[in-house]
Design goal:
globular; binds NADP nicotinamide-adenine-dinucleotide phosphate; 7 strands; Rossmann fold; alpha/beta; 265 residues; 13% strand
């Protein structure tokens, strides 16, 4: 079934990067919005712009989705406002470069909480109403990291492998229900991600490997609206994941480690 004339979209991680760009495209195309992230000022500024530029009705919800109780609380707050979410964008996430043996374990666990548990719980909370109404669209943001293990970023790559596997399975389960699940797998993209993960300057995050955020959000938006199962923005990224299928795992592991350990300049 088609979406409502003014569908309500909830975007996690809307204060920066891919989520912010996606929120722009959704509002421009007639959606009302719930913007979710930790930084209230950024969300309020974006909300004001989306209302002024596109006439969108926007709700701001400042939430730390690294807290295990947050997804349920966010859902309860949305219900208490009598809002019905038709488009769910599970985008909030972060990575961290470094050897696992030396990692801050609490940070690793909160990465799993955000990238995996919050995404799963929000999907589980909002999905039943979508299925009942026979209308809904979900976008889960994974990564090209989902297609192979990532030495020096072991937990991050594993979280994204989960997101890809979970999303593709749901896509098939939901066939003919009126609800679609699309998995976005960007490669390196110019956002705050590189700073947060301390990846700037690595071979992986240098030069033409790194895409601008606009084309990534464009590809994601079109795939979401078309109800596609998977979208990998950028020819280089599609080539990479194709090649990974045929190369021996031992070679891939060494290559990924090399890309992430070499710093340029
Ligand atoms: N950029 C890349 O190279 C790349 C490549 C592949 C996949 N991805 C994925 O794309 C998604 C978006 O990343 P991005 O590149 O746009 O990075 P970004 O610019 O760092 O944005 C991340 C967003 O997530 C939010 N966020 C982080 N921790 C949060 C928390 N605990 N609770 C709620 N919100 C939180 C941030 O907002 P606050 O700080 O205000 O909370 C921000 O809005 C992530 O899932 C990332 O793994 C990125």
């Amino acid at each position: 079934m088609a979406l409502s004339p003014r569908p309500l979209a909830l975007v996690t991680g809307a204060s920066a990067g891919i989520g912010k760009e996606l929120a722009e495209r959704l509002a421009k195309n007639g959606c009302d919005m719930i913007l979710v992230a930790r930084r209230t000022d950024e969300l309020n500024a974006l909300a004001a712009r989306l209302t002024e530029a596109h006439g969108a009705k926007v709700h701001v919800m400042s939430v730390d989705l690294g807290d295990a109780t947050a997804p349920r609380k966010l859902f309860d707050d949305v219900m208490a406002k009598g809002l019905s979410v038709e488009i769910l964008i599970n985008n909030a996430g972060f990575g961290a470069l470094g050897e696992f043996a030396n990692a801050d374990l609490a940070r690793m666990i909160s990465m799993i909480q955000l990238n995996v548990a919050a995404l799963t719980e929000l999907t589980g909370l909002f999905l039943p109403a979508m299925v009942k109404n026979r209308r809904g669209k979900i976008l889960n943001v994974a990564s090209t990291a989902a297609f192979q293990p990532g030495p020096l970023m072991a937990v991050y790559y594993a979280t994204k492998a989960y997101v890809l596997s979970f999303s593709e399975a749901l896509y098939e389960e939901l066939r003919d229900t009126g609800v679609t699940v699309t998995c976005l797998c960007p490669g390196p993209t110019k956002t705050e991600f590189g700073d947060v993960a301390d990846m700037n300057g690595t071979s992986l995050f240098s030069g033409p490997n790194v895409m601008a955020v606009g084309p990534v959000a464009d590809a994601a938006f079109h795939a979401l609206m078309a109800g596609k199962r998977l979208v990998v923005p950028g020819f280089r990224n599609r080539l990479l994941i194709f090649a990974v299928r045929f190369a021996p795992r031992s070679v891939i592991l060494k290559m990924v480690k090399g890309f992430q350990s070499q710093r340029k300049g």
